[in-house]
Specification:
The protein is of the alpha/beta class. Among the domains are: 231 residues, Rossmann fold; 93 residues, ANL, C-terminal domain (GMP Synthetase, Chain A, domain 3, 2-Layer Sandwich), CATH 3.30.300.30. Helix content is 30%, strand content 22%. The protein has 16 helices and 23 strands. Strands 2-1-10-9-11-12-13 form a seven-stranded mixed beta sheet. Strands 4-3-5-6 form a four-stranded parallel beta sheet, with helices on both faces. Helix 5 crosses helix 6. The chain is globular and about 70 Å long.
Length: 528
């Protein structure tokens, strides 16, 4: 008799843990705004939110969220309604985001840099019940109003007081707002930057956002004593990764806007311990004149993102110590890795993936690549988006096989560290060879006297696509096309070297710090 047969024929009963189970248990139905309610009960007097001179304890923040949720419901906003938000960082915006979540509405935060035409396109796609904006965007709001959309001006004063009465007045007697179910229900639709294509609406659920926070805690051990400085737009994916995650451990969130002079001062005043910013912001805030004379010794961890030159990395560590990491993540997924020990030792490493998501390198044939081999970075886990809004084809393509196909090319090294090599769509096919634009860009910006570069393909009768570079020089630098070409030929294979080099005063980047490749290629004759 085999071992398997002995199990089947044994005399005692074998039981399975069968149901029936409720479709949504309370544990799986959590609403992201619940993190504030829980903190208000156990640490009600602890400082939760700071914006300029405004300060909120967790008890005050929880009450403000309730007032906004009640006010929005009186206006007719219901569970499942889309609500577009168009505003820059403020305490109001944090309260509004969490009130929409508590109400069960779906927040659609838009990039403040969008034009009125771009906003109108996204409004038509989402058909929101209302568009909430600040006075700064009055001109865009007027365009939307003339198109027949419902507009709501978000006040700039104290949270809870509004001439329009869309907030219930502070101090008004009310029962606690009963939060709508969360879990697998949508909390937010975040539109991708559209640097290479038409923006896609990533549907992020309450559960996605909670797992985002879990990834952060498992990777970087946050505590109630941490004070998070958040200056990147709340409209991006940084809200669940950083703002919500610090609130979920009952820490303190300091909301601000990027300022070369003011950001370091705010970080010093609040004794900030952790922060996230793209490399472009870090250069102006941490290495700019505004940081001179500031005591930022409270910083213990700084999350950076996107390409950084070795000299830039070394300058940060020399000034502040080994407190930096270069995280990897995406709008569709989450921040999943980034370790301080790899920051200087390997410029392309993001460290060993942490958190709850699984990361693999995929081959074109559906198999997984071993260490050292390049392929597409794949992610699977509970932080991955539910899909793209109204785009089942793109959803199926991006999430095929149960994996998020990031469109990024990378590899694992022998230590298990993840390396980002290039964008899949940024590969240039030149003379039968694949050229990584990121690789060529990195080679260019590593040279003294060059501050930025964008590389892309242009149509060419001989090569099919020829490599073109647009370069930004530092003041006083004297590179020419001839001298730069000669220098690059020293470190790059001939087929990787740009066939043409143009010079520009600056290159456009989106709020997250990424080069807007489509716009650059259009301006300088590339293949959009």
């Amino acid at each position: 008799m085999t071992a398997a047969e002995s199990v089947v024929t044994q005399s005692h009963r074998v039981r399975k843990c069968d149901g029936p189970w409720p479709e949504l248990s309370p544990a799986r139905d959590v609403n992201i705004a619940d993190v504030v309610t829980r903190a208000a009960r156990s640490r009600g007097d602890h400082q939760a939110l700071v914006y300029k001179e405004q300060r909120f304890t967790y008890r005050e923040l929880d009450a403000a969220i309730d007032r906004v949720a009640f006010g929005l419901r009186e206006m007719g906003v219901e569970e499942g309604h889309f609500v577009i938000t168009l505003a820059r960082n403020s305490a109001h915006l944090v309260v509004l985001y969490l009130a929409l979540a508590r109400l069960g509405a779906v927040n659609v935060p838009l990039n403040p840099m969008l034009t009125a035409t771009e906003v109108l396109e996204l409004v038509e796609r989402t058909q929101p019940v209302v568009i909430v904006h600040t006075a700064e965007f009055a001109d865009t709001a007027a365009v939307l109003d003339s198109a027949g959309h419902r507009i709501l001006d978000m006040p700039e004063g104290v949270v809870g007081v509004s001439a329009d009465h869309w907030f219930l007045a502070a101090g008004e007697a009310m029962a606690p707002f009963v939060a709508a179910p969360g879990g697998a229900r949508p909390a937010c639709v975040v539109f991708t930057s559209g640097s290479t294509s038409k923006p896609k609406g990533c549907i992020k659920t309450h559960a996605n956002f909670m797992w985002h926070s879990m990834n952060m805690h498992l990777g970087w051990k946050r505590s109630p004593n941490d004070i998070e400085y958040f200056c990147v737009p709340l409209s991006g994916i940084g809200f669940p990764n950083f703002a919500l995650s610090i609130l979920s451990v009952m820490g303190t969130l300091v909301v601000d806007r990027v300022s070369a002079d003011g950001s370091a001062a705010m970080m010093e005043r609040e004794r900030v311990t952790t922060t996230f910013m793209p490399a472009t912001a870090a250069e102006s805030i941490l290495l700019g004149s505004g940081a001179n004379g500031r005591d930022l010794s409270s910083l213990r961890l700084v999350h950076l993102s996107y390409r950084m030159t070795p000299d830039f990395r070394a300058a940060l560590v020399a000034r502040y110590g080994p407190i930096f990491n270069n995280g990897y993540g995406s709008t569709e997924g989450a921040v999943i890795c980034g370790t301080t020990d790899a920051f200087l030792s390997n410029a392309t490493s993001h460290g060993v993936p942490g958190g709850v998501d699984e990361v693999m390198i995929g081959n074109a044939d559906g198999t997984f690549a071993p260490a050292g081999e390049r392929g597409e970075i794949l992610v699977k886990g509970p932080s991955v988006m539910a899909g793209y809004l109204d785009d089942p084809e793109a959803t199926a393509e991006t999430l095929r096989g149960g994996w998020l196909h990031t469109g990024d090319i990378g590899h694992f090294d022998e230590r298990g560290e993840l390396h980002f090599d290039s964008r899949l769509k940024d590969l240039i096919k030149s003379g039968g060879y694949n050229v990584s634009s990121e690789e060529v860009e990195a080679a260019i910006v590593s040279l003294c006297g060059i501050t930025d570069a964008a590389v892309f393909g242009v149509a060419d009768s001989r090569w099919g696509e020829a490599v073109r570079a647009v370069v930004v020089l530092s003041p006083g630098a004297d590179w020419t096309e001839a001298t730069l070409s000669a220098e690059l030929r020293r470190t790059l294979a001939p087929f990787k070297c740009p066939k043409s080099i143009l010079f520009a005063d600056n290159l456009p980047r989106n709020p997250g710090g990424k080069l807007v490749k489509g716009a650059i290629a259009e301006m300088y004759g590339g293949l959009a």
